[in-house]
Design brief:
The structure holds two protein chains of two kinds. Chain A is mostly helical. Chain A is built from ten helices and two strands, in the order ααααββαααααα. In chain A, helix 3 packs antiparallel against helix 5, helix 3 packs antiparallel against helix 9 and helix 7 packs antiparallel against helix 9. The longest helix of chain A is centred in the last third of the chain and has 39 residues. Chain A starts with a helix and ends with a helix. The N terminus of chain A is likely disordered. By secondary structure, chain B is of the alpha/beta class. Chain B has one domain: P-loop containing nucleotide triphosphate hydrolases (Rossmann fold, 3-Layer(aba) Sandwich), CATH 3.40.50.300. In chain B, 37% of the residues lie in helices and 28% in strands. In chain B, the strands form two sheets. A six-stranded mixed sheet of chain B has the order 6-7-8-3-9-10, sandwiched between helices. A four-stranded antiparallel sheet of chain B has the order 2-1-4-5, covered by helices on one side. In chain B, helix 4 packs across helix 5. The radius of gyration of chain B is 18 Å and the shape is globular. The chains are: A mainly alpha, B alpha/beta. The interface between A and B is large, with 39 and 41 residues.
Chain lengths: 236, 244
C-alpha cells in the first residue's frame, strides 16, 4: 500500500511538480510559539504533570542529598577541631585522598534510584502522551509536521525536568543540611558551602532534564509518526 | 465559480482501504471513483459502517489508501512529501469533526489561530483574523473561553472558525451536526451553505443528517464501501418532498 506511494516519489521529477512554489509552501512553528504552547499545555494539566515531576524530584533529591552532604563535610572539615573531625569519621564517613566523596555503594544506590526513576517517567509519559493522541491528530490536521509535535513534547519534558530538578535539588540540600546540623552542630551551617550547593543544583537540573528527555522521547516519537486519522480514531 | 466550474478539486481513482484487525480483513472501501468540482456543496450519505468516515479521511489526506489514488487539485497525494502534505492540510483544507476536536488546553482564540501560526502569519495578523472569524461564528465575546467552558454548539462553531482560518479552498466536515441539537445543527448547516455560496468554498460533508440534503448540490450515497448512487439536488427535492 505505501510501497506504491514511495515508488512513485522516486520516479517523480521535481521539475514536473504541480506545486511550483514549494519553497514558499512551508508550514512553520516559531520557537517562541513552541515555548508558549508547551508551557501553557503543561500549566493547564498541572496536576498531571506534577506526578511526573514528583518522580523526578524525588530521584534528584536523593542524588542531591548525597552530593550536598559531601560538599558540606568537605567544607566543614578544615575548620573543625579534632573532636568534630573524630565525630565525622566515627559516624561512618570515609576520607579518600583528603576529600569526602561518594563511595561505590553510594554510586550504586544513586544509579539504581535514577534507573527506577527513568522507568517511572517513561511510564508516566507514555500514559500522558497516549491520553493526548487526539490532540496530536488534531495538530497534524491543522498542518503540524511530526517535528512540531516532538518539539512541543520535548520542551514540556525539559520544563518538567528543570522544575523537578530544582525542587529535588533544594529538597536534597535541605535534608542533608538539616541532618548534618543535627549530627555535628552549627558548624555545618557556619561553613555551609554556597558554591558547592549551586553546583549541586546545576547538576541536578541537568540530570533531571536529561532523565525527563529520556522518558518523553520515545512516546513523543511514536505519537508524532501516527497518521492523523489513526491518532484521531483513538478513544479519549 | 463559473470559471472553476470544470476544475476537479478532489478526484478519487479506484480507492480501496483495508483494515487488518488480527486475522480479519475489513474492506472499508472497495474501489471508489469520484470527482468533486470546485465550489460544490457535496454530502456523503450512508449508514454507519458504510465507509463514510474512511472516505472522508482519504479525501482529506488524513490516511493512506490501501490502493488507488487520491488527487487534490489534480496532484496525487501519495506523491507529496511530509512538508507538502502538512502545507496541504494547513492551507488548502479545513476540517470539521463530529467530536469537534478542539485542543482542550487552548482557549477559543488560540484554537482558531493555531493553523495561522503554522501558516507563518505574524502575531497581529493572526490575532486580528482570529477575532474576525470568531465574530463571524458569533463567539467574539467568548474568545478567552476553553472548550470545556463552551456548549457543544459553541465548540463546533469554534471548530468552523478554525477550519476557515487559512481561507481553505475545501472544507471537509465529518458529521458536523452529529453531536448537536436540531437548532444548533441547522445553524452550522446554514453557516456552511453561506460559505459555499458567498466564498465559493467547496464543502464536502459526511453525514446522515437529512437536513443536509436541502442545501447540498449533490449527494453521494455510500453502501458497503461502494458508491451506491449519486443524486443531483433537483432530483432530490422530489424525494424529500415525498418523504415530508
Amino acid at each position: 500500500m505505501t510501497a506504491l506511494g514511495h515508488g512513485q516519489v522516486k520516479t517523480w521529477e521535481p521539475g514536473k511538480r504541480k506545486m511550483p512554489q514549494s519553497v514558499q509552501r512551508q508550514v512553520v512553528l516559531p520557537f517562541g510559539q513552541v515555548l508558549r504552547i508547551s508551557f501553557n499545555s503543561m500549566m493547564v494539566r498541572l496536576s498531571r504533570s506534577l506526578i511526573t515531576t514528583a518522580t523526578l524530584a524525588l530521584a534528584i533529591a536523593f542524588v542531591a542529598y548525597i552530593w550536598s552532604g559531601y560538599a558540606i563535610l568537605n567544607s566543614v572539615w578544615p575548620h573543625g577541631d579534632s573532636t568534630l573531625q573524630g565525630a565525622i569519621l566515627a559516624s561512618g564517613y570515609e576520607m579518600i585522598d583528603g576529600q569526602f566523596g561518594s563511595s561505590p555503594k553510594d554510586r550504586w544506590l544513586a544509579i539504581l534510584s535514577l534507573i527506577v526513576c527513568v522507568v517511572g517517567i517513561v511510564n508516566a509519559q507514555l500514559m500522558a502522551v497516549t491520553e493526548r493522541f487526539r490532540e496530536i491528530g488534531t495538530f497534524k490536521c491543522l498542518g503540524a509536521l511530526n517535528s512540531f509535535v516532538v518539539r512541543i513534547f520535548v520542551l514540556e519534558g525539559i520544563y518538567q525536568g528543570i522544575f523537578g530538578g530544582f525542587v529535588g535539588s533544594l529538597l536534597g540540600i535541605l535534608v542533608s543540611t538539616l541532618s548534618l546540623t543535627l549530627k555535628f552542630g552549627w558548624c555545618a551551617i557556619l561553613h555551609w558551602p554556597a558554591l558547592g550547593m549551586l553546583l549541586t543544583i546545576g547538576w541536578g537540573l541537568c540530570l533531571a532534564a536529561l532523565l525527563s528527555l529520556l522518558g518523553v522521547m520515545y512516546p513523543a516519537l511514536v505519537a508524532a509518526r501516527m497518521e492523523p486519522a489513526v491518532a484521531l480514531r483513538t478513544e479519549q | 465559480m463559473e470559471l472553476q466550474g470544470e476544475h476537479n478539486v478532489v478526484r478519487l481513482a479506484e480507492v480501496t482501504k483495508v483494515f487488518r484487525m488480527g486475522n480479519n480483513r475489513v474492506e472499508a472501501l472497495r474501489g471508489i471513483n469520484f470527482a468533486i468540482k470546485a465550489g460544490e456543496y457535496l454530502s456523503i450519505m450512508g449508514p454507519s459502517g458504510s465507509g463514510k468516515s474512511t472516505l472522508f479521511n482519504m479525501i482529506g489526506a488524513l490516511d493512506k489508501p490501501s490502493s488507488g489514488r487520491v488527487f487534490i487539485d489534480e496532484v496525487d497525494v501519495a506523491q507529496l512529501d511530509a512538508y507538502e502534505l502538512a502545507w496541504l492540510r494547513c492551507r488548502k483544507i479545513g476540517y470539521i469533526f463530529q467530536t469537534f476536536n478542539l485542543i482542550t488546553v487552548m482557549t477559543a482564540i488560540e484554537n482558531v489561530t493555531l493553523p495561522m501560526i503554522f501558516a507563518g502569519m505574524s502575531r497581529d495578523e493572526y490575532t486580528e483574523k482570529g477575532m474576525e472569524l470568531l465574530g463571524l461564528v458569533g463567539l467574539a465575546e467568548r474568545y478567552q473561553h476553553r472548550p470545556s467552558e463552551l456548549s457543544g454548539g459553541q465548540q463546533q462553531r469554534v471548530a468552523v472558525a478554525r477550519a476557515l482560518a487559512n481561507s481553505p479552498a475545501i472544507i471537509l466536515a465529518d458529521e458536523p451536526t452529529g453531536n448537536l441539537d436540531l437548532v444548533t445543527g441547522e445553524e452550522i448547516i446554514t453557516l456552511l451553505k453561506q460559505l459555499s455560496t458567498e466564498r465559493g468554498v467547496t464543502i464536502i460533508s459526511a453525514t446522515h443528517d437529512i437536513k443536509m440534503l436541502n442545501v447540498s448540490d449533490r449527494i453521494v450515497w455510500i453502501r458497503d464501501g461502494r458508491i451506491d448512487r449519486v443524486e443531483e439536488r433537483r432530483d432530490l427535492k422530489i424525494s424529500v418532498g415525498q418523504v415530508g
